[in-house]
Amino acid sequence: MTQETAPTVLEVKDLMTQFDTQDGMVHAVNGVSFDLKRGEFLAVVGESGSGKSVTMMSLLRLIDMPPGEIVSGEANFGETDLLQLEIDDLRDVRGGKIGFIFQDPMTSLNPVLTVGFQLTESLRLHTDTPEKQLEQRAIDLIDLVGIPDAASRLDNYPHELSGGMRQRVMIAVALACDPQVLIADEPTTALDVTIQAQIIEIIKDLREKLGTAVIWITHDLGVVAGIADRVLVMYGGQIVEEALVGDLYGDPKHPYTHGLLGSLPRLDQKGQELVNIKGQPPNLYEFPSSCPFAPRCPYVYDKCHAENPPLIAIENGRKVACWWDIENERPRFGS
Amino acid sequence: MSETPETREVIVSVKDLKKHFPIMKGLFRRQVGAVRAVDGVTFDIFRGETLGLVGESGSGKSTCGRVILQLDEATEGEVKFEGEELTEMSDGKVRSLRPRMQMIFQNPHASLNPRMTVGSIIAEPLTEHRSEKGAARQQRVDELLTLVGLQPKHANRYPHEFSGGQRQRIGIARAIALNPDFIVADEPIAALDVSIQAQVVNLLEEIQDELDLTYLFISHDLSMVRHIADRVAVMYLGRIMELAHVDQLYDTPKHPYTQALLSAVPVPDPVIEATRERVILEGDIPSPSNPPPGCPFNTRCPIAQDICSEQVPEWRDLGGGQWVACHFAE
Hints:
The complex is a heterodimer.
Chain A: E1 8-21, E2 24-37, E3 41-45, H1 52-59, E4 68-77, E5 80-81, H2 87-93, E6 98-101, H3 105-108, H4 115-126, H5 131-144, H6 150-153, H7 163-175, E7 181-185, H8 193-210, E8 213-218, H9 221-225, E9 230-235, E10 238-244, H10 245-250, H11 255-263, H12 302-306, E11 312-313, E12 319-320, E13 324-325, E14 330-331
Parallel strand pairs in A: 3-8, 3-9, 6-7, 7-8
Antiparallel strand pairs in A: 1-2, 1-4, 4-5, 9-10, 10-12, 11-12, 13-14
Helix pairs in contact in A: 4-5, 5-7
Chain B: E1 10-25, E2 30-46, E3 50-54, H1 61-68, E4 76-81, E5 84-85, H2 91-97, E6 101-104, H3 118-130, H4 134-147, H5 164-176, E7 182-186, H6 194-211, E8 214-219, H7 222-228, E9 231-236, E10 239-245, H8 246-251, H9 256-264, H10 270-275, E11 315-317, E12 323-325
Parallel strand pairs in B: 3-8, 3-9, 6-7, 7-8
Antiparallel strand pairs in B: 1-2, 1-4, 4-5, 9-10, 10-12, 11-12
Helix pairs in contact in B: 3-4, 3-5, 4-5, 5-6
């Protein structure tokens, strides 16, 4: 399942995004770097305010600017830097080469346009599919995401569909132009578990069929355990740990990942003690000059307050941003 | 918790409880139908236990909790609290029982008055039901704040100054202010961040031990319910499909809906996920205003036969306190 040898489709370097709010500057994303290989399933895990959505929305400049501002960074998609692209050229990328699925299908579909129109809209904009074939392509797409009786759904309006159906339509819209990358922002959070299982099944299936690279943003470590290749854990606007899915769940290196996995109740375990991560997530009003997790960390020592740890490669392609080596109970990097 | 259920004292008893919300239409607002949110549920809650009530959205689990506390009027059926019938009781009499049965709400942002200080929010039940005043009341508020992991100095602040998890602690302090016996917790952690959920659940467990509380814990999070509950009831379309001891229900679910529901919940472990068999249900929950005839689950059930769309299955005991509503479960 690993795509280590596959070419990179997206490379993000040192991305920094902030929001100028009434209460002060919010440093939402503070120097995020990662890459995405072709056909890879990358999970981005974090709590609300960790910067996971803002990171991905910054790439396509989907944040409101102002108050938002992308201060620095690169997002290399093939030969082009998405952050430097003219807005008209960026439109070709959005919904064309990079598809986006939002959390709430009720607010991201237009309530006064039919499903058929919304499906063909991106085809009209981004491809030169002849008008006659548009309808057939729309039917194929609806069929692809497992909605029964596809032809009769084209004239439906979003309110006539259930939540799960709407999310399938969103997926179909995002896939309409055969994107190389699909970014899904909490696509199953608003859905019930049985419907979530249906959607996950569809995404798995589509990956095999189409080979699209997927970035799946979620707060739920359970959802991505079964489908992701690699996981980025975000906290306080930074990536704190990056590892292949098996390594991350089996042997978390960052104290936050460690605590988070311990605080999750599991369906398959009884009488389990839940770990308390004390305190609350940071508010990000100040640019982090120390480790953002330090106030909540059980392993904290003086260096953590003095300097923000960089994300550094440790072993078998894993990366962690922490001054402390949990396993060997000593400072990392020999300092 | 190891006692057999039969020998334990029943604190809340629900029998054939129904709650139908009328659908009105037309110029004269005539009733054209009803949303059958709760459609005949029967169960007992034992003193000191946590009964988990799980189900997907629209299954009627929250309405069930509200009707038990008489926050909504029952359409039919009985709710007994320590043997006293609540549905026929006068409002004044129900009010006199309020100190003993309380509720923790889902959304800590909406359930606290933004214009009241935290101290006055927690003191309100003390003033209303106990007429406590002055220093005694202040002392009790301080005690409660400490008990839920906040500090007495927080009493003068307003709800917006607190995070979601802290606000939920304030809601819990208010609910336990009058030393209740029974608390309905309606999705108390659903609005909270993952790392905060464990904090709140641990707090709920601590105060349960300390104050000898009985919980009805309503949730869609089946993993958390496994952690906190002693027994679990699974609701679907206004009815209970299965009710059993927590380990029975999770280890040997008997109802096809429970089986599908449990298999749909992801486990945060890629090794286990790689080998798990999943029952993928077709379609969505039917509308509660137009439930299918017979067993409510028959439209999505993988083992449905003709009889399932004709007869409502009997609520039967499979032994060992595992109750199920299915023609074929055994």
